[in-house]
Design brief:
The chain is an all-alpha fold and about 210 residues long. It is about 80% helix and about 0% strand.
Length: about 210
């Protein structure tokens, strides 16, 4: 059996020529074995009509095996010649024949150096794409952060607007007066909170004595 991979023929036929020939060989071999079994059964059947014959089934089997070995050797020789002819004349794609899917190679031929340079350029473009994708992701994250900061600033502006409205209701218009007003009210709230805490402690002590 030929060891030539015949990759181009496998691309054209959809199977390797060696695989095809191997199946043909096995099919012929199986047929030869089956034929010898039939011949042996016919001989044994004919032999049963001669009860005085000195030839027994064991001798018939040995003779059949010897004849089968002889036929197999002849068959292997003939099949080797047939394989050579089939691989050269039938299952072979001539060198001047180009498959349709390889027409592009004829129109745009590339040398090994050009192909390697093209691969290097593709790898470089892939790295650039990955870098741009990472940069885009970082920009999107920064944009989300800016949106969050903008939302907080809008809340602060709304708070200042509300504070300004409260101060106007209490007769204060400037920021300094508004800040003083808030400071004064904060102190009052702290005093009230302190007074409430002291009263709460006194109530707890009173409950303990009871």
């Amino acid at each position: 059996m030929s060891v030539n991979p015949m990759a181009y023929e496998a691309q054209f036929f959809g199977f390797t020529p060696q695989t095809c020939l191997l199946r043909i060989y096995l099919a012929f071999q199986d047929y030869l074995f089956e034929m010898m079994l039939v011949v042996e059964s016919v001989i044994l059947k004919k032999l049963s009509g001669f009860p005085d014959s000195k030839v027994g089934p064991l001798q018939i089997r040995k003779s059949t095996e010897k004849f089968l070995l002889f036929l197999k050797e002849r068959f292997d020789q003939l099949f080797g010649k047939m394989e050579e002819v089939l691989l050269q004349l039938v299952l072979n794609v001539p060198e001047n024949v180009l498959l349709p899917e390889d027409k592009a190679h004829e129109q745009f031929p590339y040398s090994r150096e050009q192909f390697q340079a093209l691969q290097a350029e593709i790898r470089q473009l892939q790295q650039q794409c990955r870098a741009e994708a990472a940069a885009g992701q970082a920009l999107r994250a920064e944009l989300e952060e800016q949106k969050a900061v903008q939302a907080e600033l809008e809340k602060i502006l709304q708070w200042f607007d509300g504070l300004e409205n409260i101060c106007r209701e209490h007769g204060t218009s400037s920021f300094k007066e508004s800040f003083a007003f808030l400071t004064q009210n904060a102190k009052k709230l702290q005093e009230v909170l302190k007074d409430v805490e002291e009263k709460s402690k006194n109530i707890k002590k009173h409950d303990q004595f009871l």
